[in-house]
Amino acid sequence: MSENQLQLHQTLWNIANDLRGNMDADDFRDYILGFIFYKYLSKKMALHANVILKPDGLEYHEVIGHAQEEILLQEIKLDALDALGYFLKPTELFSELAKRGNSGGVNKFILEDLQKVLNNIEQSTMGSESEDDFGNLFEDLDLTSSKLGKSEEAKNELIVKVLTHLEGIDFDLENNENDLLGDAYEYLIGQFASGAGKKAGEFYTPQQVSKILAQIVTTDKERLKSVYDPTCGSGSLLLRVAKEVKEVGGFYGQESNPTTYNLCRMNMIMHNVHYKKFDIYNEDTLVNPSPKHIDERFEAIVANPPFSANWKPDAIISDDRFSPYGKMAPKSKADFAFVQHMIHQLDDNGTMACVLPHGVLFRGAAEGHIRKYIIEDKNQLDAVIGLPSNIFYGTSIPTCILVLKKNRTTKDILFIDASNDFDKVKTQNVLNENHLATIIETYRSRQTKDKYSYLATLQEVQENDYNLNIPRYVDTFEEEESIDLLAITKDLKALENDIEATDKTIADFCQQLNIETPF
């Protein structure tokens, strides 16, 4: 990581910590990330408008009061809606409100105007192609909340402080070669996740796990037509896949939590993913899959679904995603329902990799039936990777990665036991770069490695009654060193002789000193 990256990460995190006061990290996250996003949109808007105005010898702020102000703003708006997906007037830019908040007097009160600006960003997209991508994007940024302060003045003061601190940071958006700001945004999301306990699992997959999934689904590929995540959280997994290839044609995701859904859309835009290249949908994936996505087939699928979640299979029992299996995943454990959904969405030349609790490997009843169908009838299971316990925020359970493909040419399954390879960092277990490299290299080479991996035949899996518990295939048992009893007996006899000789010496000293022996 470069010095600039580290500095930006630290500066933003320091601002968050300095300003949040007694507010929960969860609540303040929505404000600080929302305002960083607003500044990003403002900067993008100003840069884009300046390019349009260059032939006229104008800069965007000079349009206000210009003789042709109305015509110029209309032209810029039409262009910006197509190119950026939204529009901001010069008076609505982040820098303008930050300046006003610091101006003193009546103008210092900016809460109402700020709320209007955020609403206007959403309103500007109405009826345009980007409407779905910007609609209700700022709904979690409640400027009337008592969490910001007891009085309107106190709320205004805190908001002005946040804007002022952020205004002092150069986002360097002119430099298209780097993704400093996008990475910093991702870093902040991760930092908030690490302090959010159990709730963090709802919106963030640790980067170490994201890297494994991303590298698996991009194996032997430089470009991807599409990548999909049915439980996309803040979008970190989708964006990680993009770092592993030269180009991704489209990003598709679904997220049931409205706040997290907003965070994901912001994260996409902050990483320079054009609004025409992503489609994120806000609904329960299992019960209400996106009507736009359900008939699509995706080249790469990555996911970290909620572990063993409750769901309602009764409502969709005849659904094409589940009916071929003859059994539905149990109501109290949706793990295999997510797997079935992803298989349905996977393209014939695609790869999917998802994180699941260990129970999916061996639980019986309906889950055992589904597992057998995937392995025996469809031959779609490519690999099972065991991860260490305690690497996810909010749960210490050990997890695994299932890798599935359609149209496989071999009938074998690779098992990798990476459960003992980790570093301890405070209370979390962490996979370092060497651990990640070993997992990926082993997956790609499909090698059997002593006490680490095993390439099992379909027959071996059948003999285990389709139980995929990793110790059945990868023997990690370490033999204890053999003990030479004759040598130990000899040593004990020698020790007894030494003790006897020492006792005689002590008794002799005691006699000379005319005192009792201690034994």
Give your account of this protein's structure.
The chain has 519 residues and is α/β, with parallel strands linked by helices. The chain contains 16 helices and 13 strands. It has helices at residues 3-20, 25-53, 69-83, 94-101, 111-123, 131-134, 152-167, 180-194, 207-217, 236-242, 258-270, 335-345, 365-377, 433-445, 458-463, 485-513, and strands at residues 223-224, 227-229, 247-248, 251-254, 278-281, 298-303, 346-357, 381-386, 399-405, 412-417, 423-425, 428-430, 453-457. The strands form three sheets. Strands 5-4-2-6-7-9-8-10-13 form a nine-stranded mixed sheet. A two-stranded parallel sheet has the order 1-3. β4, α11 (258-270) and β5 (278-281) form a beta-alpha-beta unit. α4 packs across α7 (152-167). The longest helix has 29 residues, at 25-53. The chain starts with a helix and ends in a 6-residue tail after the last helix. The model has no long low-confidence stretch (mean pLDDT 89).
Descriptive key words:
519 residues, alpha/beta, 9-stranded mixed beta sheet, two-stranded parallel sheet, 13 strands, 43% helix
How is this fold's topology laid out?
Blueprint: H1 3-20, H2 25-53, H3 69-83, H4 94-101, H5 111-123, H6 131-134, H7 152-167, H8 180-194, H9 207-217, E1 223-224, E2 227-229, H10 236-242, E3 247-248, E4 251-254, H11 258-270, E5 278-281, E6 298-303, H12 335-345, E7 346-357, H13 365-377, E8 381-386, E9 399-405, E10 412-417, E11 423-425, E12 428-430, H14 433-445, E13 453-457, H15 458-463, H16 485-513
Parallel strand pairs: 1-3, 2-4, 2-6, 4-5, 6-7, 8-10
Antiparallel strand pairs: 7-9, 8-9, 10-13, 11-12
Helix pairs in contact: 1-7, 1-8, 2-7, 2-8, 2-11, 4-7, 9-10, 9-14
